[in-house]
Request: fold
Amino acid sequence: MANVVSEGAQERGTRTLRAEGALKAIAVDQESPERVHRTLEQALVFAGAAFVAVYAPGQDGELLCLVESAGVPRTLYGLRDSYPCAGRSPVAEAHRGGRPVSMGPAELAAHAPLRRVPSQDFHLMALPLHGNGGGCLLAVSERSAGFDTDDRTCLELVSEAVAFTAPAAPAEGGDPPPGAFSLAMDTGRVRVGDDLLDLFGLDPVEFDGRVETLLGLTVPEDLPSLMSVVEADHMSIGDRELEFRVLQPTGPPKWLRLSGRLLPGGEGHPARLVGTVADASTLRSDVTDVARVQRLATALATAVTVRDVGDAVVAALRRPLGADRIALAELESDRLVVTVLDPPEPEVWPELWRAEWRGEWPDAPVRAMPTLAAALREGRARIWPAGSPLERALAEVGPGGLAVLPLPAGNRMAGACLIGWDTPHDFGTDERALLTACAGLAGQALVRARAFDAEHELVGMLQRQLLPRRLPRLPGAVAVARYLPSTAGLELGGDWYDVIPLPDHHVALIIGDVQGHSAGAATLMGQMRTALRAYAVEGHPPDVVVGHANRLLMDMESDLFATCAYVDIDLEEGSAWCVRAGHLPPVLRYPDGRTEIAEAEGGPPLGVITQADFPMSPLRLAPGTVIALATDGLVETPGTDIDEGMARLAGRLADAAPADLGLVADALLGNAPRSDDVALLLVRYDGMDLRPLRESWTVWRVPQAVGHARRFARRTLRAWGVTEDVDAVLLVVSELVTNALVHTDGQVRMDLTLINNRLRVAIADASPRSPVRPASISWEATGGRGILLVEALSATWGTLPVSGGKQVWAEIALGR
Reply:
């Protein structure tokens, strides 16, 4: 135990000594404009801080203004760019009292100046600065225990170093230092030196002092990133650094690097953006490990998904460290589910990993790599140089050197990062600190990204449950559908589609869109889809179906409205009726390749007007015609007219080969914008190979009605050449007609349909009550056997609602 304590004390002492050495090395370079920032970065490495900043009194002396920061964006913790000197903030209390102020999650939740709803718990520590007019050093830790004793010692060393190097607030007049600039955010006037103008190729005499003049010399592709820096509303203080190109009179563009920060002006003074611009070629070889940590923190702050986190880690570590391969994996139970491999080719990774391949990425068992399991249990970064005795699954990752970085997140391990070299790698003295700092940042980001991915998957699952699981097989037609959820945010969308088989070889195609993106929109979408299906199955014409859905939505008193397009196709005749309720018209592709946007008259959206008209427009479909129904997410983009989008859709549909509708749908969605949900329904009408034979008979309520129905059925079957199972058909006719005459009032109609040796007998009456199959029948019962006989003689039977009544039908397979 004594040895363990001694080793721990020695390690802590070494950390303090290394921090002192790093700060002394930075203090030597007094002329460096980045010395304050580099000093703060030591708190990220040696004190485990996630964010650190310097606040100094403003020009009016009433505010403590943020003048420099490092780490993740301050907005993640609700920190402001200035605090009143007389206020109750930790910054002000440390400045006035001259003593450190420390707060944990409980104190922060109750503290008025910092009250917020944090994404996670964090600890905050403010240390006073005793030089250059005072001020405060503010540090944030995301670790569950906060800053320990050694962390605080390192923070005190950083605060002492900052107190003697912190720059005074830049004055409004005078020449800026070499390579520096100062931009007034209210006027756009910029003060620069001759050396900076020389980088842009400008003559100081001709420069008009406007920032637009400098921006006009940049390469157009780099202008958006520069604009994000000079716009104050999007500025994160202390973490803006980017490279851009400026045009040259001859030769290729020149690469420059800008580092900037926003200085709040305080009461009565405008905010200013100050920083430096330098030739990028002179800085690339001088990037420090701490700068890499800061860049990784900036990248992880905007990483949304687990894949984004992996890509940011790879970009920050593999090339700068000269590594040959890097893997990032999530820890799930006893398995490492690898989310990012770089390079991605399976053959460059160990045989065990390839044997455990799961889809796109491997699923590696931790128990097969005890060295890795031990590193995860200890929670410390481990480095093995070339030739270290390791299990084969790890030795093949880094034969020239291997680094295993457990990714901590609070009091557990979120995963691991493996970095391997093929040739012997010389691990520098500061490389372990770099890897440890990167691992801590990546672990926290991985947990946040995993939560986002899980929520996004839940949203997608709920959306899929509200849409049809599969489309029905249609006689004489093929239907495919695609749905793409929006990638912007996590809210549910309201786009839907449906394909509804109807009697007499009709089919209803529906596509719609509920206003907005929310759980309410998705719920309303499900209700509208169910209502339209119910009204369609009842046998109403298209305009009545849409009209009923409109009245239903009005009665629901929802604040949302919906649009839809409804197309009823007669698969026997090749004709269709289209009804539009504020939705896009169908796009038709004819067999000769021509496309046409259907001229279908439209009505208002559903849920807007109670007494609305929804006119029906006819469509003629030749065999081979493709009907495309889409929501506006496929054709509408910001800044373009929706008619242009419809024309593009028609043009792309004309270029597609309709033989495989699945490929056509994928091609149409290939370049779809993802700012909105997208639903697409394609139907190719091929025509029915066999046309059914049909006959109808009105059954009069006379004593001989059943006999008349039987004789009509017999004559019809004889005319159709049916000679098999005639007696079975006549018995089914007798039972169904008798039930209708005995148990209902009003008119009764019999329809006979024959196709593919299947005869359909349908009896329609005016009663909505469906016949019920009896569970049991006693010997003394005088009725109730009719449905049992129909069930025994038919391949299938059922009932359909018909306007005001029902239809009882049975299908008999002839020649069984």
